[in-house]
Every structure is written in structure tokens, then in C-alpha cells.
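Thread: Modeling a multi-component assembly for a lab meeting

Hi all, long-time lurker, first post. My supervisor asked me to bring a structural picture of a complex we are working on to next week's group meeting, and I have zero experience with this. I have the sequence lines for every component (839 residues in total). Could someone generate the structure of the whole assembly? Inputs are pasted exactly as I received them:
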Amino acid sequence: MLPGPLLNYSVVGNTLVPHFLGEHDHPWLRVLLEEHERFVGQPQRALDARLQEPLPCESPPTKRKQAVHVLSWLRPSPRKTAVVPARAREMVFAEAARTATAAAAVLSSVAASLGVSAGDLQDSLFADLPGERLVAAPPSPLSPAELALRTNLAIARALLFRATAVTIEADGNARTLVRHSKLRGLICTVAGRTCRADFVLELSGPFALFRHTRLYGHALGELVPLLAWCRRFRLRAECVVEGRRLTLALGTGDPIFPADEPRRYDSRLEERFARDFRRVAPDWDVLREPEPVPVGDALIFPDFALHHRRDAGRRWLLEIVGFWTADYLARKLLQYRSAHLSNLILCIDEDRSCTAGDLPAGALVVRFRRRVDAAAVLRLLG
Amino acid sequence: MKLQFDRGTILITDPPPNVDLAHAPGALWDARVRAHRAPAIHYHALKSWLAQAGVGVVDLARAPRPRPEAWSDVGLRPYQQAALSAWELGDHRGIVALPTGSGKTRVALAAIKLTKLGALCLVPTRVLLDQWLREISAVYQDAVGCYGDGIHEVAPLMVATFESAYRHMHLLGDRFDLLIVDEVHHFGGGLRDEALEMSLAVARLGLTATPPRDAAVVARLTELIGPTVFELAVADLTGGFLASFDAITLYLDLSGDERSAYASLSAVFIGAYVAFRQTAPAAAWSDFARAAAGTTDGRRALAAWRQARRLLAFTRAKRQALRSLLGHHRHARVLIFTADNDTAYAIAREHLVMPLTCDIGRRERDAVLERFRQGTIRTLVSARVLNEGIDVPDADVAVIVGAALGEREHVQRVGRLLRPGEGKRAIVYDLVSRDTIEVGQARRRRKGLVARASAQL
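Re: Modeling a multi-component assembly
Sure thing. I ran the full set together rather than chain by chain. Output:
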């Protein structure tokens, strides 16, 4: 987490405007990366001391510190030493306590007993401390543009760490956002749909009811890189910064490093069905994770939408209900019953033993065992 | 009506139509879930309020909880027994303030045994987590739970770090009826207070050697834990339950080049600082640091201040004095305290003495303390690790080369020496650079050692 003193932002009215790094920062970021590379293999403290001083080109001090902080997340590698450092400390300090001789004589005596030189022993003594570890090269070459994006992500997350509640309007990737919120103990309510977005989520935690707490800042900050996978998004966060209540807005196109692509399928069952259906139904498109369906305060996320390519009126939502608990199945079916969908296909695992009364009225049902029969689904679509 | 523990809060559902929950303790309407909700700390007040209102309640808030019962004897000294009694009289809520080394943990263990309640003990560091686990295991024969340092084991008697408690109290808050907070002065003014609000526990015991004096912090701690119910200072116990000690301040001169460098750095810093204080007389240091970071002159002033501190951390005279003191006390167990880790390592390299810092791993640290206990090493140097709570084996001499955190840190450092011994008289050397900011700092930190209240022993 970027520490507070390194946060760089303006306040316009009640709005928090982060000072993101952009293309104009790339020249000095390139110099910084070159400096970093020059120190690869040297002790971390040498690089730290160098970066305390200005770069050979103009660079904004706070932004430079932010980028240095992000670079520091590359873990330095331990040094190879003649003696394991902890062993060296144990022997040297015990010998120093035992004798009244000078430090050099103690080192020589212990070194002789270990069969190494006094210099090597002295070099081993603290070689495992953070400042003595060796600067490591990034796992893959880091460009100035990527370092800028990663720094911006750190800035956005550090600001959201101060957030008490967040509203997200977005298209696509809702399932990932909702899943993350639930896993992290947030309360996620659906504030309906707007002309600009498929869904609007309001996220905060139970304790946020009582005060502007930062308890949920970590979980809210983790949403930022996931947003890059929405087709469009707008995020508004209520933040408390230095005692002031301010609003942070982020949106599509903000220069923030994205998370890894979310998994396209939740299970091999779903992946296999999509592949099979595309093969047996060339006239149909299979859309993974269509727009969510609001049911009261909640959203349901059908697994697929099936569209006929030449007949826009023929569109079905499909849900695969597979390996779940009886409780989960009951809740899921209740939600679908409440949604009153007229174009729903439910694929139910035969082992779930649902009776007809459990199922939503009007839903088409395909029962399956191990594998959803794509041809049977196609037959239902007519 | 149902009461449920929901992630650090009490969710109140299905209330009868004739009950207005707007006046229930701590309860607010939560439109997100269409129910009333209260912080977990209000659980008992809420139940009492509902009972008085004659409302029947299905209480689903408390997780099933076996009691910790496998205790052996927890012997107490008279002042520890007095502290425990004061806490009992305070309705099992309150703070006990006892000097470092006087056995605060023992009071806590006796409180758990006495109340027979499932207890969660919160400690500030992983080092203290290990130490509490060891101390509990000495008098309690069942498994002890642990939450912190990557371990998540729940048991009716459990120890957790503050950080873990803050992150996980939404999962743990319904499992314990007694909350014990070691080094409780860390709470009362910070973000982590919420961890204490997210627990249902009605019985609460705070432990500290240095109770806070700030009125707002005291008021907040009274809400979260209870008032200070018992307090003794170092001077109340020295010579009896704690060893007597001599505090010797050595005023040392800077060398010529150190003096001139210090004067230039001070001039840069003081110029900016005085100008700031004139515009904001009531501002805190953090306000100055924030304002200074925004201007070139301010940044220069902060850099000068940091350099001046580095210069004072280990001057030539301190180096010389330390060499003499280590020679003089060659056969004693010596603790050296520094203002920062860099100085600790510099001393470790120069004198070949073992540093104990946050960089030294747990296993090695434990082995080092054991060797110190056995006497195979006789000197340790540390910036912060030895300050708080950690049970350092008996030591006779402390040399304070540098300090960073004022009165509280000083009381804790001196406390490291006060384990009583036959005819023991400990010595604390405070190395202070003459005509520098260290003189005032040293004077202020010594205030914490004077007696605060007379013990009722």
C-alpha cells in the first residue's frame, strides 16, 4: 500500500482528483528504470541511498517517490555467503562475549574454526538483512508506460483504502465484482439500471452504517484492477482523507494497470457446453455472462444468453445448476421464480432431484448427468 | 424478534410492530438490508433494553462456546491480587496499569481463570503473540488458539495480534465473552478501535505500563474497555517487587565538525519550523510535516531535521562512551537501546554484539533470548523490538544511546531491567548530547518513572 505522505491529489470542491502519471512522465520513468537496472545484483541499501538523491533529469519529487515505492515491491534476492548469516552471528557473538579480545581477533578466530577468511565471515554476518539483499531485475522487462500504470493503480488503491462506500455503474463483468464483494464481506446492493449502464452496484460493509470507517478500504481498493474488464464503468467512492469527506471518481479510460483477465468460465461443465453448443448450433451466438437480471434488491447472473443470428426476437437465458448444496439450489430457484422470466432454460443436474414444483413456472428444463447435452438444448429452442 | 451477529454488528430482524427500535442502544436502520443494526459492543445493553421493554428474543448472536477449564494454579503477588480485585469490583471492565516486568499477563490469566469465560487476548506484535502463548501454556493444559503470523486456529482461549483482530473480528466477534487487550494504550485514538467495537464480549480487561493521559483518549478507552481501575508506577514497586535502579544521565559534547554540522542543519530546520508555528501556533508536528512536504523550503527543512537526528543518533562521544561502558560492565548483562535500526547495526558490527531488530526472524530471536538467558551472550542492541512487552531475561545494565518515542518508550525500556534479584541494583545510562534537542527530550522522558499512586498492598 502506498503510504499516505506519498499520495498526490488535488481537491476541487468536494472532489478528489488523483495526480496520475501519464506520458509526460515517461522520460524520467525511463531514467529511473535505467538507474534501477544499474543496481541489479548490488545490495538494496546502495540503490536506496542512490534513490534518495535526485535523478539526472527533472522529475516531480512525489511522483518519483511513488514510482520508487512501486519498484520496491520487486523482491530483492538473498545473497550467497560463505557462512549462513544466522550461524555466523551465533558463533561470532558468542565468541565475542567469551573473550576480551578485539573485534578483529574474534572474527579471525571464528573464521579459522569455520575454514573461511575473516573478510568472508564479516561479509556473511548481516548478509540476510533487507538492505543487504541484492536488487533483483523485474520478472519481465518493465517499460516506463507499465511502471506509470502500476503506479497509478497503487495511487487509486491507496485512495480507495480511505473509502467508506463505493457506487459502480458498469457494463459487463458484474459477476466478478459481486463475487469479490461477497468474498470480502461487503454488502452489495443493486440500485437498478441506468441508461448508461447495465447495472449499478452500491458497495460498503456492515459497520459503514455507523461511521466513515476504513474497515472495508482494502476490499474496495481491490475492485479497481477488476474494473478494467468492464466494457464501461464509472466508480464514485466516498472517501475520508485527512478528516474531510471527499468523492473520488474513476471511469473507463483512466490509466490504471488492469488485473489478470477474470476466468471466462466458472467450471469445465460450462466451458464444454459453450463449445458443444457452438458446434451443434451454428446459427446461434453464445454470450457468456449476459446482463444481470434484477430481482428485488439482488441481481441474478444467468450463465449464458443464446441469440439467434437472423432473428433478434429469439433470445434465451440459460442457467446451469450443477454441483451445489440443496440450500443454494433452493435459493437459486426461488430467485428465478421471482424473476418471472419467459425465456429461461434451466439445466438441472439429475442428482439434485428437483421436483416440478420447485422449478420456475414457464422455464424450459434440461436434465443432465455430468455433461449438458447441447443438442437437447437446441431442440428445446425449436 | 431475532438477534444475529453479522460481521461485527448485531442485526435485529422481525421486530414486533409495537416496538420502536429507534431508541434501542446503538441501533440504526440499515436500508441496505431493511433491518435495524447495532455495533456488537452494544449487544448486552441491547438485550437489557429489550428485556425491559418486554420483548421476547430469539438470540442467535452468540456462537456456541465451550469454556476454558483446564487450569493449574495461577499464583498472584499481593499487588496483582489487588489489581484483579479492583477489576472485579469494576464489574469486570477496566484497565490495569502496572510497570513493565511486574507481571501484567499474570493478572490477565487469573482473570480468565476466575471468570471461566471464553477469552480473546489481543497483543500488538507477533513477538508478544508467541510470549502470551508460552505463558498461557504454562498454566493452562488445553489447546490455545492463535490468530496471527499466518496461523488461524480458534479455541475457547485464544491470542491474536491487533492487526489480525482488526482484519478478522467480523468472524471472531461472537465467540468470546472476555476481551483482554495487552498494551491497551495503542487504542483509544486510532482506526483499530473498531476491532473492539465488533466484539460481543461484555467483560473487558486492558493492560498497560503507560496509561494514556489525553482526555479524549481516556474517554474513548473508557467506552471501549472501561476506566483505569488500578495503577502503579515503577517507583511504587522498586526495591520490593521490582529491582532498585540508578538512572545516570551522561551529558556528552559533540565534536567540532559535528557541532558545526548540527548548527547548520538546525538553522535550516528551525527557520522553517518557527515560521510555520507563527502562522499555526496550535498545530501538531504532523501538520507541520504535511505542510512542509508541499514546498521546496519545507522539504529542505524536513531533510535537515532527519539529518540532524541521524547525526545525533551515534556521535563520536556516544561511540566512545559506549565503548567505555561495555568495557566497564563486561560481566554484566547489558541492553543497548538505539533510536533506529541503522545505529543498532552499526553498534553490532563495531562491538560484535547481537542486534535484535524486526529483521531478525522469530526462530533466531528466540534462540538469541535463550542464549542471553544462559549467559553465552551478554549484550543485546535494539531500536524497538525490546521496547514493549517482550519478556527479556534478567538484565543489569541499560545504555540508552538514542530514543525516538518519548516517555512511554523510556518507561518500557527501563522496565526491562527491573526483574528483582538478590541484592540487585540495576543501572540505566542515558547518553545525551549537550546543547542539542536531546537534552529536553531526555528531561521529558524521565517524568514517566516517578510514582503515580500509592498501592493498596
